[in-house]
Amino acid sequence: MPPTARQDRFAASHGETVAYALGTIGREDDSQPVEDSEQGRKISEAMMEYWVTFMREGELSGKKLPDWPRHDLSLPKAMVFGNQAIAAR
Hints:
Elements: H1 18-22, H2 38-57, E1 78-81, E2 85-88
Antiparallel strand pairs: 1-2
């Protein structure tokens, strides 16, 4: 995701992912507008596919997407969205 003014303290703040998950990047009327870009649209498409698949099937996976592993307290990981989505520690 593109850097923001707050990124020197945080990675992505709670609300910054909403525009990607809902496919509203580039909308100026969004509460936290995100600049429209080709990379941003790809990230948004991946997030939306993960969300829809989870709602429909209860699993975080997608036909064209990397596996999003179940949360494991003994080996915590987070999904990182950039040039590609990866589960990282």
